[in-house]
Amino acid sequence: MIKLIVDTLGGDNSPRANVLGAVKALETDADLYVVFTGDENDISKIIEESGFSDKNRYEIVHAPEVITGEDKPTDAIRLKKESSMIKAIRILREDDSVAGMVSTGATGALVAAATLRIGRIRGVRRPAFCPILPTMAGGIVGICDSGANVDCTPAQLLEFAVMGSLYMKHAFGIENPRIGLLNVGTESEKGDDLHKEAYKLMSAALGDSFVGNMEGRELLSGNYDLAVCDGFSGNVLVKTVEGTALQLLKKIKKDIYSKKLYMFGAMFLKQMFAEEKEFMNYQNYGGSVMLGTGKIIVKGHGSSDETAVSKCIEQALRMQKSDLNAKIAERLAELAGTDTENNTDNGGPENV
């Protein structure tokens, strides 16, 4: 049995989407056990309405307080101790039987709480977010980092490449992930000093897995399995791609209804349009896993619906079943020439 915490508050569609998404995951995977944190009455009512009746597969921890996007992360951690997110983090840290958590709450508070309370895998300088998107070739591509670290060093970008490639390999079965470094051109000499140095480090450490610089327009081409970038660039990249897809769908719909001839033709393409809509719907691809933390954390979109939440839980299960954190610690130790007797770094100020 794999025990995961689901923070039911903080998202745009919380708590209903979070609870129903977890119920969907419980019905799909018999190995899953869920700890819900949030308002006990609301959670119980939603579960009852869903028809899920196996009370041996879940428990509820009452935590009615909500951390919002307006809360300063450090203040939220210190002052909102009864919030669903902070209680979830506390359980995650103190209970060895809990493998990870899923939250759609405030990103800043989650990153700060995870860094301060959970700690990092030994050898990791900074954890990084890694969401996935579909490609035109029918596969998926990961983006690491997509928002946890605005400023990065070349060594950190190399770490993101290592963690992201292991995630794509062991969670999704991509045997030899093709890694690209997001840059302004594909030539090796392109970019600023950060990217030139990162290119050298990745070329030396990753071998044939590193396929060079990647331009943003190539993200969904299917030529890359992982795009490595600093959190600022990665966040802009992901949101631009998602936003473009949504706006394109809106334009197609608007254009179809603009002329009777288009409407008539669209009748014959209805199924294709439905399939394309599903393909470009980011809700179907879960959230951003937080690579590098001592335990598994998946951050869902604030607008996540129940499908997205269930996919976030699926991502957490993939990470746990593949023993991903241990593999990350082992690989980073190989690169650094250090031992991996202890997988998490619990000795520094990050674990106050």
Structural class: alpha/beta
Question: CATH topology of the largest domain, anyone?
Answer: Isopropylmalate Dehydrogenase
Q: Which shape, going by the Cα principal axes?
A: globular
- The portion of residues assigned to helices is 40-55%
The neighbouring-strand order within the major sheet is: 3-2-1-4-13-12-6
What does this entry look like structurally?
- The chain is an alpha/beta fold and 352 residues long.
- Helix 6 (154-172) packs antiparallel against helix 12 (324-336).
- It has twelve helices and 14 strands.
- It has a seven-stranded mixed beta sheet, sandwiched between helices.
- The radius of gyration is 21 Å and the shape is globular.
- Strand 7 (132-134) and strand 8 (140-144) form a beta hairpin.
- It has two domains: 1-124 and 292-352, 3-Layer(aba) Sandwich (Isopropylmalate Dehydrogenase); 129-247 and 273-289, 3-Layer(aba) Sandwich (Isopropylmalate Dehydrogenase), CATH 3.40.718.10.
- The longest helix has 26 residues, at 231-256.
List the helices and strands and how they pair.
Elements: E1 2-7, H1 16-28, E2 32-38, H2 40-50, E3 58-62, H3 73-79, H4 84-94, E4 98-103, H5 107-118, E5 120-121, E6 128-130, E7 132-134, E8 140-144, H6 154-172, E9 179-182, H7 193-206, E10 210-214, E11 226-228, H8 231-256, H9 260-268, H10 270-280, E12 288-291, E13 296-299, H11 306-321, H12 324-336, E14 344-345
Parallel strand pairs: 1-2, 1-4, 2-3, 4-13, 8-11, 9-10, 9-11
Antiparallel strand pairs: 5-14, 6-12, 7-8, 12-13
